[in-house]
Amino acid sequence: MQIQGHAAIVTGGGSGLGAGTARALAKAGAKVTLFDVNLDAAKAVAAEIGGHAVAVDVGDAASVEAGFAEAEARHGIARILVNCAGIAPAARIVGKTGAMPLADFERVIKVNLIGSFNTMRVAATAMQTLEPLADGERGIIISTASVAAFEGQIGQAAYAASKGGIVSLALPAAREFARFGIRVNTIAPGLFGTPLLLGMPQEVQDSLAATVPFPSRFGLPEEYARLAIHMIENAMINGEVVRLDGAIRMQPK
């Protein structure tokens, strides 16, 4: 799919991978709407790229439906959805103070996994009503997993479970939507320079970066964005989960 002129929605667009992707899409000519719970951050990026920002909680059905309605009124039905919203709190299943509160696990699943499904279901419903492009394509949905889906570390049980669910969602969704010309893909990043990692002490950042075989550094949001752009433009990439990690394989802790 050529990006120029099409409407796109990026969740978590106010920072990190989402902001990098929103910038790349706008540069490619897309009409971009940014969803984020932090409306001020999303507005700042939207102002920079000529996009539109909406306050959306991806884990809430009504919030997502309202966000899509506002985006459609502004730019038309989106042919492109990139899910970057997510949280990554660390906690052991059984820690020094006892069992992890169930609500903490539920919150991670709700934002990361349910949030990705929530936007997918609304986006695909609207995409199915669009006229197909010349090659029969109507749209594409890209979600963000993590290498933790495959090598979750101690303390990442909730996060790894949520990202593993996103990995497992890609193929059945792609198969279901194939008859409508809607593709579904997933990117599984390794260590990327997002606010979560960049907020750590420099010595911790350096230690983590050294674990990446090559290049031995954090990935850049624009590198994630370049892969997302390629997935959008290459119609044969469908139902795939692509690791973007510099060959890292996470150790137990």
TrEMBL record:
PROSITE patterns the UniProt entry points to: ADH_SHORT (PS00061)
Cleavable signal peptide: none
Family matches, as InterPro entries: NAD(P)-bd_dom_sf (IPR036291), Sc_DH/Rdtase_CS (IPR020904), SDR_fam (IPR002347)
Coiled-coil positions: none
UniProtKB keywords: Oxidoreductase
Annotated GO MF terms: oxidoreductase activity
Matching SUPFAM superfamilies: NAD(P)-binding Rossmann-fold domains (SSF51735)
Family: Belongs to the short-chain dehydrogenases/reductases (SDR) family.
PANTHER family: 17-BETA-HYDROXYSTEROID DEHYDROGENASE 14-RELATED (PTHR43658:SF8), SHORT-CHAIN DEHYDROGENASE/REDUCTASE (PTHR43658)
Name of this chain's protein: 3-hydroxyacyl-CoA dehydrogenase
Source organism (scientific name): Aliidongia dinghuensis
